[in-house]
Amino acid sequence: MAATLAADPRLIVPVGTCEQHGPHLPLGGDTLIVERLADDLSAEFRVLRAPTVEYGVNVPTARVFAGNAGVRRKTLHRALNDLAAAWESEGVREFILLTAHDGDSHLEALETVITTAARVRAVNVFGLDFRDLLEGQLEPMHGDEVDTSLLLYVAPEFVQMSLAQDYMMADEAVRRYRRGWLEVPAGSPGSIGRPTLASAEKGQRIYARIRDRVRERIFLAPASRS
Questions:
Q1: Who's near 183: CB < 8 A, 6+ residues apart?
Q2: Domain 2-219 is found in CATH 3.40.50.10310
Q3: CA angle (22, 132, 203) in 5-degree steps
Q4: pTM given for the model
Q5: pLDDT per residue over 17-55, tens digit each?
Q6: Which has fewest Cβ within 10 Å: 70, 72, 130, 215?
Q7: What are phi and psi of 142, to 5 degrees?
Q8: What are the residues whose beta carbons fall under 8 Å from the beta carbon of 131, sequence distance 6 or more?
């Protein structure tokens, strides 16, 4: 590890969630997506990859979904601060926090991680424009056409398309949901969007766009050595 850090002092930290995404997807769907990306980037650029932080800040739901388990924003923030401090003392000079969960409180916990001198880069893989790749949506939602397509590509053994159900919300309601101002409605199956339009081929294209953008904007830039 010391030799690898001496050659490139960056560390990839995948941050997942344990959260429902509808009856057709696994609780750890966000985690599976971000782990695949972390593994691919680590192998390509020979950058160390930390063990996954498997719990994040879940969005509240109007009814109980068995298996859901999340932490508060300040809990995730403190945990990441503690981990970053330990790794920074061992030579890490840049942290690349990857997540596939775009709730505002969750992202805030990542974006406000404090270090002594190391650079912190929080990357939300859903912060891209996928409109040209989608049929029934204009943006990522939750357990939707995007999530389901990605999981059909990276982990098809965990997807049960026969259980997928479409449930649409107005754009403003989706924005309020992401900010934590609105619960996942009781009438929702746990997913929001159009998962029935998902396909592995679509997932491959979405994944390629995510991987290529992260490569270009993060990994092809010079490593920080301050």
A1: 59, 60, 61, 62, 177
A2: yes
A3: 45
A4: 0.92
A5: 999 999 999 999 999 999 999 999 999 999 999 999 999
A6: 72
A7: -165, 115
A8: 138, 139
CB 182 within 8 A of CB 173: yes
Tokens of 7: 């050659």
Closest CA to 67 of 181, 190, 207: 190
Which residues, 6+ apart, have CB-to-CB distance to 133 below 8 Å? 202, 205, 206, 209
Instruction: Decide if 97 contacts 15 (C-beta within 8 A).
Output: yes
Which structure tokens are listed for 139?
């943006």
Reduced to 3 states, what is the DSSP secondary structure of residue 97?
strand
- Supply the DSSP string of 53-88, one letter for each residue: B----PPPBSS--TT-B---HHHHHHHHHHHHHHHH
Q: How far apart are the first and last CA of the chain?
A: 19
Cβ–Cβ under 8 Å, residues 69 and 18: yes
Return all residues near 18 (Cβ < 8 A) that are at least 6 apart: 27, 28, 31, 54, 55, 56, 58, 67, 68, 69, 70
Q: Residues 152, 163: contact at Cβ < 8 Å?
A: no
